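not sure who needs this but someone in the group chat was asking about Phosphate transport system permease protein PstA from Lysinibacillus pakistanensis so here u go. i didnt clean anything up, its just raw.
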Amino acid sequence: MRYIDDKVVMKRMTKRITFNKVWKVFFLLATTFALVTLAILLYRIVTQGIDYLTFDFLKNYASRFADKAGIKAALIGSLWLMGVVAPVSIILGVGTAIYLEEYAKKNKLNDFIRMNISNLAGVPSIVFGLLGLTIFVRMLGLGKSVLAAGLTMSLLILPVIIVAAQEAIRAVPSEQREASYGMGATKWQTIVRVVLPAAIPGILTGSILALSRAIGETAPLVVLGIPVILQFLPNGLLSQFTALPMQIYDWAKRPQEAFQYVAAAGILVLMSVLLLMNSIAIFIRNKFQKRY
């Protein structure tokens, strides 16, 4: 029997421990660099925009004068946009995920569909803007409306929601389904009363991340030709509108220094909306996690 050489073992273990410490330091430095960069960015935005973030800024419309510029039309327009994007994308996304995971057969065609849905999640947003311009603006004649932009943004985030919902549904233990079937429940009753409630935390997490991306995207809106300056609020789904990213983009590209501070104030408003959306999602997710 061959005996283990303690010296060789200690030499290899020392090498492995040293290797582990080096990578641990590397990962710590990478995390620190990211956090410091984020802190500097937040500090710069807050210090530049906090003085312009007033009640008048929230209630005024856009203006060519920095001290009179406001974000009312853009803020309300973004809320209208999310009012279209959220129900369309979540209903279609979760419905597609339920079909693919619970009803679709395991064959090459469905595997091909799943693979392409995952690939669509990485397509640049400007491509979806061109698609929305061709289909919704020109073919369907919706124009530069809330509905056209909302449907375009829904296409943009739909693959992300589908993939997230699939993973959440797939993570539900099969024992829960079998117990429901054993009690005499149908497949649809099992999905509604067992699978979906257990998968809601994961579905909400993916959905809120996707909606956060949609509310901050500028490229598709630029392609659709959404205006940056409006002096009225949208009064329907077919009404013209502007959005927070478009308004911030317009202010940031202006040469006057004062508009850079106004753009920073707009970014603070956009971040506040995102934090509110995430807070609501976290609250709902935690509520369902306690029940299931």
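also The mean pLDDT is 85. if thats useful
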